[in-house]
Specification:
The chain is α/β, with parallel strands linked by helices. It is built from 17 helices and 20 strands. The protein has two domains: 390 residues, Glycosidases (TIM Barrel), CATH 3.20.20.80; 72 residues, Immunoglobulin-like. The structure holds 1-deoxynojirimycin. 1-deoxynojirimycin (NOJ) binds next to loops. GO terms for molecular function: alpha-amylase activity.
């Protein structure tokens, strides 16, 4: 293998700025708050920070509705604060990674405001406009990802515009070269500021089909999820290669694209030297509870059968990226529930569950992405009323569940599990007021039990989730296992075991083994090749070969004597 690049050897940490640290008492986090915590991030082996959008935004979708692609929202600070963050990060070997949200803009972006004024305006063709059906209804029966029609009527133009997400997020028309150029210019603006990479949002939707047709309804509302109608439309790669050439190529940065639905066999076109990006976030391991599409009300919830599936899809992703591109390992982000709830039964010991997921995350082949609070083992939240939720998709999916005949209580149970607010509660720093997040009134409630689960408490406890992350990060980045964990190949072990996830990493004469028990029962296993191996780390003290206690994770190392 060629020499690894800097971003293949480091850990990436995802910051949700609104919930990270508030330095002004406004109740929402800010850029100065991120700068203040760079030294903390260093203790987690972090070399890059992915910031979810900090651009000016009406915040209908918390920053994913952007009104200016090359400025900073005043609630987060100033451009000078951003430049300072980039510089302070660089001093510590931490690069900033910006979120490029290029499928859509805010409806308050000057481009859209102009586009919506008339069919002859300067930006008339910058968005996706279509005439109504003869009866005046929307051009197609597509449902937006947040619920409700994907089309909104515009009086001035007497036309509908398309929005894959909220009505406040009109889709940009990538067929128009002027649109593409404006977007590339904005990304180059951030490269000139010295950022270390980009996470590219919702990229699978940028290319629309030539003809728009109704789809087979997938719910009682008579609509079909837009994802199944427009994702990965042929021709998309032409746009993406141009994007790479005009922006990313030749820079010492990384790109990771959010690409729900790209199949492993297509990967070589999407990632790697010849592909459009360095890495792809694919969601096969996040969508296990949604075998029939992504409606929350149709999800299966947790069942133990999820674990064999999880093993299967993770292995498939490891194999798919063995020769093509590089794997971005992640189990959480700002759109997902907390992983301690995701892959474990409700009664599971959350601390052990968090450590188990950390062991997998930090020893798979790829770059680990840690989402803020994951390193503390934070769990989901469950507020009583739908009005308590800020997340726009929680509201849309709640309404849809009611329309399907679910009771309000049933609809709330669904929201409790899948709401994106689960991951967006304020970061827990101290045992003090509001967990040290804000001196004001936090925009979302802080978890009640923050006194035990906060950086201040966990940093002091040797057996905390935070200490385990720090230990695993040290294993990955220095010492005898580092070479294997960074470069070694991957082989699944105990593939038929329904409760234990086990895999071997190998590099030169050295082998590293990870074994995790996802069940609440003690599990025994037979793995003769482990006999001469030595325990490197265990999530509970007193590990014994051949058996794993409930939710236990262990990591072994072994020398083979021969180069394999
Ligand atoms: C994916 C982002 O991760 C999510 O938070 C956002 O709502 C949508 N894309 C729309 O931009």
């Amino acid at each position: 293998m060629n020499e690894l690049k800097w971003w293949q050897k480091t850990n990436v940490y995802q910051v949700y700025p609104k919930s990270f640290l508030d330095t002004t008492g406004s109740g929402t986090g800010d850029i100065k708050g991120i700068t203040a915590k760079l030294d903390y991030l260093k203790t987690l082996g972090v070399g890059a920070v992915w910031l979810t959008p900090v651009y000016p935004s009406p915040m209908v979708d918390n920053g994913y509705d952007i009104a200016d692609f090359t400025a900073i929202d005043p609630s987060y600070g100033t451009m000078e604060d951003m430049e300072n963050l980039i510089a302070e990060g660089k001093r510590r070997g931490i690069r900033m990674v910006m979120d490029l949200v290029y499928n859509h803009s805010s409806d308050k972006h000057p481009w859209f405001i102009d586009s919506a004024t008339s069919r002859d305006s300067e930006h008339a063709d910058w968005y996706i406009w279509r005439d109504a059906k003869p009866d005046g209804s929307a051009p197609t029966n597509w449902r937006s990802i947040f619920g409700g029609s994907a089309w909104t009527w515009c009086e001035a133009r007497q036309q509908y515009y398309l929005h894959t997400f909220a009505a406040a997020q009109p889709d940009l028309n990538w067929e128009n070269p002027a649109v593409r150029q404006a977007l590339y210019d904005a990304a180059n603006f951030w490269l000139d500021k010295g950022v270390g990479g980009f996470r590219i949002d919702a990229i699978v939707y940028i290319k629309k089909p030539e003809v728009f047709v109704d789809g087979e309804p997938d719910s009682d509302d008579g609509m079909v999820n837009i994802h199944s109608m427009i994702a990965n439309t042929p021709g998309i790669l032409d746009f993406l290669y141009e994007f790479k050439e005009q922006v990313f190529a030749g820079h010492d940065i990384f790109t990771v694209a959010e690409a729900n639905g790209v199949e492993p066999h297509e990967l070589d076109k999407w990632v790697g030297e010849k592909g459009a990006f360095d890495m792809l976030f694919e969601f096969s391991h996040m969508n296990l509870e949604f075998p029939n599409g992504e409606l929350w009300s149709h999800a299966t919830g947790y069942t133990p059968e999820i674990i064999p599936e999880l093993k299967k899809v993770l292995s498939a992703s490891q194999h798919a990226t063995a020769d093509n591109g590089w794997y971005p390992a992640f189990f959480e982000n700002h759109d997902q529930m907390r992983c301690v709830e995701h892959y474990f039964p409700a009664e599971a010991d959350k601390k052990l569950a968090a450590k188990a997921m950390a062991a997998v995350l930090m020893t798979l082949r790829g770059t680990p992405f840690i989402y803020q609070g994951q390193e503390l083992g934070l769990g989901n939240t469950a507020w009583e009323n739908i009005e308590d939720y800020n997340d726009i998709s929680s509201h849309g999916q709640y309404e849809l569940a009611l329309a399907e005949g679910k009771s309000p209580a049933e609809a709330m149970t669904i929201v409790h599990r899948y709401s994106r607010d689960n991951a967006r509660t304020p970061m827990q720093w101290t045992r003090g007021k509001n967990a040290g997040f804000s001196a004001g009134v936090p925009w979302l409630p802080v978890h009640e039990d923050y006194a035990c689960q906060c950086v201040e408490s966990e940093a002091l406890a040797e057996d905390s989730v935070l200490s385990w992350y720090r230990q695993l990060s040290a294993l990955r980045q220095s010492g005898e296992a580092a070479g294997v964990l960074q470069q070694g190949d991957y082989t699944e072990l105990l593939a038929d075991n329904p409760a234990i996830m086990a895999f071997r990493r190998r590099f030169g004469c050295r082998l590293v083994y990870t074994l995790v028990n996802f069940s609440g029962q003690r599990q025994t296993y037979e793995l003769p090749e482990l006999e001469e191996a030595r325990l490197l780390s265990g999530s509970i003290s007193g590990s014994q070969q051949g058996s794993l206690r409930p939710y236990e994770a262990v990591i072994y190392i072994k020398e083979t004597g021969e180069r394999l």
